[in-house]
């Protein structure tokens, strides 16, 4: 079963007036993984889709959704998959890809059938991102060993982290979708600090590997008018192109960033120094 919900885009001046409840309603994706279901959120920010596939007792199929008005899900789209659980399988038009923990798969436009299932008695959690695509590129699996890795931050500023660029244009051909995973070192809690904006791209952040009983505060909004959303493990948040991207947890964690928009330049960002934030 494939379920979906639709989210409109928002003007930053309107977001200034949102209550906590309204902010969470419009930007937080609270539950991605439901037993033997695929749950998707379609946002009008670059028509991005984020969601999760959680096969427990059977193989589940990625069906098209009404908002796409397409005969099949990838008729005009590309798909990124990162497994944040145990071993699982993704079958793309009959070709089987086995994904272990923290391994990724790019699925190109034009593939008609995509199935997800568990493997070897383990429990996979498939995190999904999708963006419109103008061209067909071949599907490709990417392991952590094949990722482009960057070490950033410092323990003194509580943001020592390793960035694993998985589905980026230096690793795999995509139209506009990019995905990667940032792992915070023990004792570090800040991601993407100092924060940044990039009006040429939007992002979705998905948080996982957060210890039970801990929380993450995701910061968003314009640099001079910030807002925050407290989040739990296995939740995602939509981060508009006008918004900063930053977060801090009560312990270390891992997050997946996914983005789409004007370009494929990972370094294209407008940094905001901490003393500028309000």
TrEMBL record:
Keywords: Isomerase, Metal-binding, Zinc. Pathway: Glycan metabolism; pectin degradation; 2-dehydro-3-deoxy-D-gluconate from pectin: step 4/5. Its EC number is 5.3.1.17. InterPro entries: KduI, KduI/IolB_isomerase, KduI_N, RmlC-like_jellyroll, RmlC_Cupin_sf. It is an enzyme of class 5 (isomerase). It holds the Pfam family KduI. Its cofactor is Zn(2+). GO terms for molecular function: 4-deoxy-L-threo-5-hexosulose-uronate ketol-isomerase activity; zinc ion binding. Zn(2+) binds at residues 196, 198, 203, 245. CDD domains: cupin_KduI_C, cupin_KduI_N. One of its GO terms (biological process) is pectin catabolic process. Binds 1 zinc ion per subunit. SUPFAM superfamilies: RmlC-like cupins. It catalyses: 5-dehydro-4-deoxy-D-glucuronate = 3-deoxy-D-glycero-2,5-hexodiulosonate. Catalyzes the isomerization of 5-dehydro-4-deoxy-D-glucuronate to 3-deoxy-D-glycero-2,5-hexodiulosonate. HAMAP family: KduI. Belongs to the KduI family. This is 4-deoxy-L-threo-5-hexosulose-uronate ketol-isomerase. The lineage of its organism: Bacteria, Pseudomonadati, Bacteroidota, Flavobacteriia, Flavobacteriales.
């Amino acid at each position: 079963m494939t379920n979906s919900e639709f989210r409109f885009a928002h003007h930053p001046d309107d977001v200034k007036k949102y209550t906590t409840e309204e902010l969470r309603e419009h930007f937080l994706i609270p539950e991605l993984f439901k037993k033997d279901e695929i749950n998707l959120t379609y946002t009008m920010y670059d028509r991005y889709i984020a969601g999760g596939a959680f096969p427990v007792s059977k193989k589940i199929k990625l069906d098209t959704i009404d908002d796409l008005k397409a005969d099949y899900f990838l008729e005009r789209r590309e798909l990124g998959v990162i497994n944040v659980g145990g071993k699982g399988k993704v079958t793309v038009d009959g070709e089987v890809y086995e994904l272990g923990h923290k391994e990724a798969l790019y699925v190109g436009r034009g593939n008609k059938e995509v199935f997800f299932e568990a493997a070897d008695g383990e429990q996979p959690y498939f995190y999904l991102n999708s963006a419109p695509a103008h061209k067909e590129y071949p599907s490709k699996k990417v392991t952590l060993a094949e990722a482009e890795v960057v070490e950033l931050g410092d323990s003194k500023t509580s943001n020592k982290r390793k960035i694993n660029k998985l589905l980026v244009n230096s690793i795999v051909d995509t139209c506009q979708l990019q995905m990667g995973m940032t792992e915070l070192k023990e004792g570090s809690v800040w991601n993407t600090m100092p924060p940044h904006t990039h009006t040429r791209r939007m992002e979705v952040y998905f948080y996982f590997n957060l210890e039970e009983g801990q929380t993450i505060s995701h910061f968003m909004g314009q640099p001079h008018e910030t807002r925050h959303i407290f989040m739990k493990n296995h939740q995602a948040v939509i981060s508009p192109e006008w918004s900063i991207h930053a977060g801090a947890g009560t312990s270390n964690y891992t997050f997946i960033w996914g983005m789409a928009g004007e370009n494929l330049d990972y370094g294209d960002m407008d940094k905001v120094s901490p003393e500028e934030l309000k």
